[in-house]
Amino acid sequence: MSLSKLSGLSLVCALVLGLSACAPEVGSEAWCKQMKEKPSGDWTANEATDYAKHCVFK
């Protein structure tokens, strides 16, 4: 594997890890607030289930 490919792969991995670290934990107050502000038509089925479980039926 060339150095440029290895550098690119490392950059992509760092970016993915950095972005995932910024997301609030599912079920937290910050997550519930973020989901409340997101249009419900953009929610996934898992997000809707988690929202109901953690934010509505506490």
UniProtKB/TrEMBL annotation:
PROSITE patterns assigned to the protein according to its UniProt record, in alphabetical order: PROKAR_LIPOPROTEIN
Signal sequence, renumbered to the chain: 1-23
Signal among keywords: yes
Keywords: Signal
Identification of the protein by name: DUF3012 domain-containing protein
Pfam family, one: DUF3012
Annotated InterPro entries: DUF3012
Species this chain originates from: Shewanella fidelis
